[in-house]
């Protein structure tokens, strides 16, 4: 899952390229670059953040369950969650200021604050109503945006075409194309301050967190008898994500030029389908995990070690990407294309794998997990003597 998010995020560092406004993938590369980008739009983009939001919600339930099992009062658990979410916002702020404006930790923290106090201890029925309401509102907004786009196209034929071709100063240029680190930091902070609340208000991340709560209450990814259901969700979820993302991928590859002016709104439906796709991936990896848990090999144990340190591994990606690719660092983002960037993403994930294995052999947590745990428990009267390692990470296991 962290490999997928590395692949999804690295394209944001490709500044100085011709990139359409509806995607982060440049269109000025070779055939291999375009094919890889098209496949990423089809199978990865708009999946990873819903997937991690779902797992973040699932992990919150594991966190609460493990503390309650040790006799921690519900009120104290709520206080722990509150502190955890507040510190996640701080983590996200620092992450954005130093390295990456596309940070998602702040949005997770804000989502946790927004929904936990109101809904965390509510019944499944209440949560289901909330999920359908959030998804329905997003779908309604997407349909209204599509209607507006069709009206605009009828009244102003071709009027938005030049903007969508991406010849101007794009997202990657704004986030990573500024050579002065101080100015780049100010821009990143500005983007994060607007982007984190906007991600929450887009409704999809809160909906996925609530779905994670429901799944976590029923131990959906953990109980062996759920395997068939996991397989069904994996197949249909991933398939749904692909179907919803197909128009954007075809537009990007130049196969639907007539729809390019509406690509920005079509991508909204891709994001909606990404909810199904992200949960489908979580189910797929859940099935794989169940099959391998009785006979884990070296690779399985290494990947599991990364999962236990997912927050540190996620932050490590930015430590690799930003200095190497941004204009204030070595500036390679302007000199490479998608294929090379994906190679760097795989290398960054492999580096996190090596570091996680070393820490696992030393029976040590990741540094970010250690810090978040200490801040979560700080000044609380009830601290478990032997708190488990389940779901201390972000976004969950």
Q: Describe it for me?
A:
- It is a single chain.
- This protein has one domain.
- It is mostly helical and 397 residues long.
- It has 16 helices and no strands.
- The protein is 70% helix and 0% strand.
- α3 runs antiparallel to α4 and α3 crosses α10.
Can I get a quick summary?
By secondary structure, this protein is an all-alpha fold. Helices cover 70% and strands 0% of the residues.
Average pLDDT taken over every residue: 87
Structural class assignment: mainly alpha
Q: Using the alpha-carbon principal axes, give the shape.
A: globular
Q: Could you tell me how far the N terminus lies from the C terminus, measured between alpha carbons in angstroms?
A: 10 Å
Strand tally: 0
Question: Helix coverage percent of residues?
Answer: over 70%
Order of helices and strands: HHHHHHHHHHHHHHHH
Number of helices: 16
How large a portion of the residues is in β-strands, by DSSP E? under 5%
Q: How many domains make up the 3D coordinates?
A: 1
Question: What gyration radius follows from the Cα positions, in whole Å?
Answer: 21 Å
Low-confidence stretches: 162-168, 381-397
Largest sheet: none
């Amino acid at each position: 899952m962290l490999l997928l998010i590395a692949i999804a995020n690295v394209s944001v560092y490709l500044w100085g390229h011709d990139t359409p406004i509806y995607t982060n993938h440049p269109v000025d590369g070779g055939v291999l670059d375009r094919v890889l980008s098209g496949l990423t739009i089809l199978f990865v983009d708009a999946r990873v953040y819903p997937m991690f939001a779902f797992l973040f919600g699932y992990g919150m339930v594991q966190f609460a369950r493990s503390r309650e099992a040790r006799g921690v009062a519900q009120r104290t658990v709520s206080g722990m969650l509150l502190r955890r979410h507040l510190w996640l916002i701080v983590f996200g702020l620092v992450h954005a200021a130093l390295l990456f404006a596309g940070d998602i930790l702040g949005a997770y923290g804000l989502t946790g604050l927004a929904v936990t106090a109101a809904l965390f201890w509510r019944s499944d029925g209440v949560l289901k109503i909330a999920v359908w309401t959030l998804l329905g509102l997003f779908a309604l907004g997407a349909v209204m945006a599509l209607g507006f786009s069709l009206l605009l196209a009828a009244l102003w034929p071709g009027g938005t075409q030049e903007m969508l071709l991406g010849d101007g100063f794009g997202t990657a240029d704004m986030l990573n194309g500024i050579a002065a680190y101080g100015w780049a930091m100010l821009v990143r902070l500005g983007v994060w301050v607007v982007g984190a609340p906007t991600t929450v208000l887009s409704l999809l991340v809160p909906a996925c967190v609530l779905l994670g709560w429901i799944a976590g209450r029923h131990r959906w990814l953990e109980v062996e008898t759920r395997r068939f259901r996991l397989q069904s969700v994996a197949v249909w979820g991933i398939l749904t994500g692909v179907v919803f993302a197909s128009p954007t991928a075809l537009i990007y590859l130049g196969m639907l030029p007539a729809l390019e002016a509406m690509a920005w709104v079509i991508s909204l439906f891709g994001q909606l389908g990404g909810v199904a796709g992200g949960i489908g991936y979580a189910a797929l990896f859940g099935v794989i995990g169940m099959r391998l848990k009785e006979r884990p090999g070296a690779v399985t144990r290494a990947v599991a070690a990364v999962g236990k340190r997912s927050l540190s591994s996620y932050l490590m990606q930015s430590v690799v990407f930003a200095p190497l690719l941004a204009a204030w660092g070595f500036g390679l983002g302007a000199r490479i294309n998608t294929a090379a960037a994906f190679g760097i993403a795989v290398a960054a994930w492999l580096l996190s794998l090596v570091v996680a294995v070393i820490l696992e052999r030393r029976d040590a947590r990741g540094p970010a997990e250690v810090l978040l745990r200490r801040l979560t428990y700080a000044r609380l009267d009830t601290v478990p003597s032997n708190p488990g390692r389940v779901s201390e990470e972000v976004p969950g296991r």
